[in-house]
Structure formats: structure tokens, C-alpha cells
Amino acid sequence: MSFTDKTLTCRDCSNSFTFTAGEQEFYAAKGLVNEPSRCSSCRSVRKSQTSTDSGGDAGYERYGNFASFGGRTPRQMHPAQCAGCGDMTEVPFKPRGDRPVYCSTCYNKQRASSATEAVRD
Ligand SMILES: [Zn+2]
Ligand SMILES: [Zn+2]
């Protein structure tokens, strides 16, 4: 497949411009069937306008950050009665009947005193 330079008229500035063989090959490789309707200078103007438009993406970025911030959910706490002092406490897991639940104070006490017992267990 061979290409030859073509002279086309720009839609925007009405100047004639060359659609070179190399560009035609590039277009064909990209699967573009339409010839360019604007000269390269008008295309570059449109390109810069398009990139200005895409500045609107910054709004989406901000929204994305906000969304990811809101995506963090706090850990659900479950009310439970401390087996040590009988006070109501909250634990980050669902209390099961087969295990005693302690408040943080009693849990720390329990841990300290049961350190030796745990070996026997
Ligand atoms: Zn032009
Ligand atoms: Zn307690």
C-alpha cells in the first residue's frame, strides 16, 4: 500500500495544507478512514483547547479523594459485660458465650496474671 501527498483545505482557516503520505500511513495504521479536516496548526489549537477542557477532570479527582475518604468506615463495636468487674464495655468483635469479655482495664490485668497460667492451659 503506497501513499502520496494530498492537498486538503482546512475547515477552520480555509488554508490548503498537505496531508502527507506519512500522515496517511499513520491514519491508515490507526484505522482512521476520514481525512483530516483541519491543518496542523488548527489541530494543535483544538488540542490545547481540549486539554483545557480536560482540566475539568480535576473536579473528578477532588471528588475521588472525597469518596475514598468517606469509604473508611469505623469499626463496629459491640456492647458486652466485663467478666472481671461487671461493668459494661464495648468490644470490636461480637461477644460469644464461650469466652469471657473484659474491659480494657481487666483485660490488661487478666493478661498480666494469666501469662503464667496460659502455659498450663
Ligand atoms: Zn487551519
Ligand atoms: Zn472490667
What is the string of SSEs from the N terminus onward? EEHHHEEHH
Beta content = 5-15%
Number of helices: 5
Q: Are any ligands bound, and if so which?
A: zinc ion
Low-confidence parts, pLDDT < 50 over ≥5 residues? Answer: 54-71
Profile the largest sheet: 2 strands, antiparallel
The class by helix and strand makeup works out as alpha+beta
Mean model confidence by pLDDT: 79
Cα Rg: 36 Å
A few lines on this structure:
The protein has 121 residues and is of the alpha+beta class. It is built from five helices and four strands.
Describe this structure in words.
- With 121 residues, this protein is of the alpha+beta class.
- It folds into two domains: 6-54, no CATH class; 78-120, no CATH class.
- 42% of the residues lie in helices and 13% in strands.
- It has five helices and four strands, in the order ββαααββαα.
- The protein has helices at 21-29, 40-53, 57-70, 104-113, 117-120, and strands at residues 6-9, 16-19, 78-81, 88-91.
- The protein has a two-stranded antiparallel ribbon with strand order 1-2. Strands 3-4 form a two-stranded antiparallel sheet.
- The chain is rod-shaped.
- The termini are far apart.
- Mean pLDDT is 79; it is low at 54-71.
- One zinc ion binds at residues 82, 84-85, 87, 102-103, 105-106.
List descriptors.
121 residues; alpha+beta; 2 domains; two-stranded antiparallel sheet; two-stranded antiparallel ribbon; rod-shaped; binds zinc ion
Helices and strands in order:
Layout: E1 6-9, E2 16-19, H1 21-29, H2 40-53, H3 57-70, E3 78-81, E4 88-91, H4 104-113, H5 117-120
Antiparallel strand pairs: 1-2, 3-4
Residues 10, 12-13, 15, 38-39, 41-42 line the site of one zinc ion.
